[in-house]
Amino acid sequence: MHVVVVGSGRVGSELAAALELAGHTVAVIDKDPTSIRRLPASFTGRTVVGLGFSREALAAAGIDEAGAFAAVTNGDNSNILCARIARENYGIEHVVARIYDPRRALIYQRLGIPTVATVSWTTDQVLRRLLPADVQHDWIDPTGSICLVEREIPAAVVGRKLSALDSPAVSGSPR
Amino acid sequence: MTRFGQARLVDNDTLGQEGDLLHFVAEVAALEELRTRLDTVEAHR
Asked: In chain B, what residues touch A173 (CB-CB under 8 Å)?
């Protein structure tokens, strides 16, 4: 699959290298020619100096043949704009935008643009390591209504049917 | 659940084993109820 990556910072360059290692063709767009130098020497994909929402830059990156698109610059607005253009103008199915602002990330996620909310994710990971007992949930859907919770099996249920946990009557009884 | 590093779906007859990791899907509004239920199970050992 051909993948277009906008942004050649630490994330963009590592992402591009990982994609290439996985056998995909990759084109990287960055407005700063010096950022392109972050790509490993072994990188054989296309590099384009320009804006990720520019028609010319996207064409040079092979957007018409792309099956996936990642916008990982350090600007939320740029990433969202690039992601929307890739999705809406070029019909790319797999589009992801990195968003720093947690509130905006949530809004765009709800609008159907997959986002990686860097600040939220980092905060969550640090909290999990600082206060593991206080973790409320492991995953929550973008609307905030359904969550996934991980828990070690309660000792009282070892050797018993796990369906016992479904019933308050059983789960509240002594073993 | 995850058992010995392998994910699997639980059915009505699955028996719990030491070391199992359980993954619950819940409504956020019911999260406290779930925690209470699990704590109650633990408290009644």
From this structure: 44
